[in-house]
Structures
1.
Amino acid sequence: DAKTTQPTSMDCAEGRAANLPCNHSTISGNEYVYWYRQIHSQGPQYIIHGLKNNETNEMASLIITEDRKSSTLILPHATLRDTAVYYCIVRVAGNSGYALNFGKGTSLLVTP
Amino acid sequence: DTGVSQDPRHKITKRGQNVTFRCDPISEHNRLYWYRQTLGQGPEFLTYFQNEAQLEKSRLLSDRFSAERPKGSFSTLEIQRTEQGDSAMYLCASSLGGPGRYSPLHFGNGTRLTVT
C-alpha cells in the first residue's frame, strides 16, 4: 500500500471550511484514497473515498489532484462536533476484504 | 441498524491471564475485522473474516492471539498469557462485502484492555 503523509494537527474556526491535506506521492493506478475520522473515545467513522474523480457526499468533499499524488478532504462548514482525528488511507480494493491500515492522521480542532 | 457492539468496554487483567472479547457486527454484514489501537496511534489491522472463514491475519497477530467467528455472526478475540504490551484498545468493525463494490467499515467503540 502507498504511504500517506498528513499534518499532525490543524485548527479551524467553527463555520469555516476545514481543508485537510494528504500526500500520497507513491500511489499506484489501482489504489483508492479513503478518509475516516475518529472522535475521542469512539471507533473510526467512514467519511468518503475516491479513485480519480472528485467526490462529494453529505459529510464532505474529496478533491484528488490530476496526478493523484495528493488529495484534500473538505468539511465545508466545520462544527465543534467535527473535532476528531482524520485518517487518509490509500489501499487497493482487492480480495483481502478492504482491510485498511491507518496511520497517525491529522488531529483537527474546531474552535468556537 | 443497531451498530457494531463490543463487550466488555473495559477489561483490567493481570499479566499472564487469558482474556476474551466479543464483537457483535451489524446483522447483515458478512465481513468482520479486528484492529488494535495504542495511545497516539491509528488503528492497526489484526485479522479479517468473511462469514466464518478467517481470510487474512496480520503479522501483529502473534500465536497468543486467536480469533473465531464460528457461525459467521459474532466473533471472539482471545489473548492468552497477556503481557503489558497487549494493553490497547481492541476495535471490531464489520462491512457488507460483495464483488466490485466498496462497503465502508462500521466500527464499534472498542474494548479497552489494561494489563497490570
2.
Amino acid sequence: AQSVTQLGSHVSVSEGALVLLRCNYSSSVPPYLFWYVQYPNQGLQLLLKYTSAATLVKGINGFEAEFKKSETSFHLTKPSAHMSDAAEYFCAVSTVGGYNKLIFGAGTRLAVHP
Amino acid sequence: EAQVTQNPRYLITVTGKKLTVTCSQNMNHEYMSWYRQDPGLGLRQIYYSMNVEVTDKGDVPEGYKVSRKEKRNFPLILESPSPNQTSLYFCASSFQGPDTQYFGPGTRLTVL
C-alpha cells in the first residue's frame, strides 16, 4: 500500500530564509509524486510533479523538489522565502498504471515572518 | 477559462436533511474525484469516476453517493448527513493516468 508522511505539521521561517518541507513516501511500484499548495480559502494548486524523468523537478514560484529513491523522499525547497509563500503544502503519491488515485500527506503549514 | 466549479461554497444544514454538492469541469476530463479535508488528516478520497457511468469507492465512502451521467458533472450526494460529515470538500478532475488533478475551490459543509 502507498502512503505519504510529511514531517512537521507547522514550519516557520523568516522572509529570505531557506524553505525545506519534508516528504517521505512508501510505494511498492514506481511512484508519481506531487506537491500541491493551498492558499487560505482556496483549492489546491499544483506546484510541481515527478513522473520518472529528471530527479530534480522545478515548479512554480521558485520551488523545486528532488526525488531520492534510496531515501524514499521528495522534499520541497525554495532558496528564499517570500511572505506570499505562507500556505499549506501537501505532498501526494500516485502510481504508474494506477487509476490516478492520489494519496495525500497530512499537510505542512508554512508561516513566513518578517 | 479551464476550471472546476463547485456549488455551494458554504452550506450549513441539519442532521438527516438530504443535500447535493455539485461539481462541474470544462476541460473534457475523463477522471473526476471527491475528497474531504480534515485537520491533521490531509485529503482523503471519497469516490472517484473513470468516465461516464463508471464510479467506484475511495477510502471513505460511507454516507456518500455519487453519479456520473455526463462527462462534465460529478455531484456528491449526502442522503442523510450526520455531524461527522462536517468537513471541507473538494472536487477534482484530470485526464486518465497519474496526471495533474485540477481542484475546485471547495465546499465547506457544517452539519448540526
3.
Amino acid sequence: GENVEQHPSTLSVQEGDSAVIKCTYSDSASNYFPWYKQELGKRPQLIIDIRSNVGEKKDQRIAVTLNKTAKHFSLHITETQPEDSAVYFCAPTGRAGNMLTFGGGTRLMVKP
Amino acid sequence: DSGVTQTPKHLITATGQRVTLRCSPRSGDLSVYWYQQSLDQGLQFLIQYYNGEERAKGNILERFSAQQFPDLHSELNLSSLELGDSALYFCASSVAGDTQYFGPGTRLTVL
C-alpha cells in the first residue's frame, strides 16, 4: 500500500509570510494528489488538487507543485493569514475515486 | 457546506453497545467512503461503496460493517464497542473517478 509522509509536522509562521508543506509517497502509480485543510473538530476540506500530467497548479494564494520522479508534492501558501491556521493533510492516490491514504498532517499556526 | 450529510452529529454510548452512523452523499455521487479519525491513528480509510456494492476495504475491524442502500445513502454499523473506538467518523462521496467531498462527521464517545 501507499506509504505517505508529511513534513514538517508543525509549522509556525508570521502573518504575511509563506508556508511550504512537503508530502512524500511511495507508490509510483499514484496519479492524483489532493491537499485537504481541517480546522479543529471540522471536516477535511479539499483546497487544491493536481493530477500527474501537470507539474504545478495555482489558485490565488495556494499552489501545489509535483515532482513525480522524486515522488513528492508540496503545498505552498503565500501571504498567510490567521484563518489559514489549521491542520493540512496530503492524500496521494492511484486515481481520483480510489480511497485516500492520508499523511500524518501538518499543523500550521499563523501568528498575527 | 460540501453537500454530504451525516447523522447523528454526536453519539455517546457505553462499551459493548452497538451504534449506526448514517451518511447521505451529494446528489449524483455514486461512491461513498468511510474514514475514522482518532488522535493516535490519524485519518484512516475504512471502506468504500460504489452504487450499492462494496468496492474497497481498508483496516476495518470485523466488529464494523457497512452498507449502501438503493437510494445511495450509507450506514456504518459499529458493534461490541470498545473505548478505543472513540473517534470522529467521516464519510465522503464522489462521482466515480472524481474528487472526494467530506461530510461534517459523527463524533463517537464510548464510555
4.
Amino acid sequence: GNSVTQMEGPVTLSEEAFLTINCTYTATGYPSLFWYVQYPGEGLQLLLKATKADDKGSNKGFEATYRKETTSFHLEKGSVQVSDSAVYFCALRRILGNQFYFGTGTSLTVIP
Amino acid sequence: SQTIHQWPATLVQPVGSPLSLECTVEGTSNPNLYWYRQAAGRGLQLLFYSVGIGQISSEVPQNLSASRPQDRQFILSSKKLLLSDSGFYLCAWTPTGGGNSYNEQFFGPGTRLTVL
C-alpha cells in the first residue's frame, strides 16, 4: 500500500541550529513527494515538492531530495529561525492517483 | 488566481445537533475536492474526496456525509454530532487535467469544530 512515515516530535531547537526531519515512504510506482507546513490555527501550506527521483525541492531555505533508493524525502534547513516554529507534514501522491497520503506531522519549536 | 474558502471559521455545537460546513473554490474548474479532519495534536485523516459533481468517495465510515452540489462547492454534513467529531476540518483541492498527477493540494483555512 501507500504510506508515509515521518519523525516523531516534538522537536525543539535553538535559533540558527541545523534541522532535519526524516520522512520515508512506501508507494506503488513513482509518487510525487511534498512537504507542507502548518502554523497554529491555520491550514496547510505547501513548502516544497519533488516529482521524480533525484529532484531537489527548495523554498525559504528548506530543502529535500527525492531519494528513490532509500525511499526517503528528508527535510533540512541549515539555520532555523523562531518563525519556523510550526508543524511539518510529509506527503505523497501516487502517480495517476487522486489521493494524498500524509505523515503524522512533526512539531518544531525554535527557541531564541 | 485560485482561492479556497471555508466557513464558518469556528463552530461550537451541542452533541446531537446537525452540522453543515461549506467549502468553495474560486478561479478553477472541475477541481478534485477533499475533506480532512485533524484531531488535536494529530495528523490528517481523509474523510471524503470528490472528482466531480455528485461523485463522492468515503474513506472512513462514520456519521458524517459529504455532498458536491456544484462544481466548486463541497459540503460536509452530519445529522447528529458526537463528541468525537470535535476537531479541525480542512478542505483542499487539486487541479485536474494534463500533468495533474504532479500537482499539490491547496488547503483552505480550516474550521475549528467543538462538540460539547
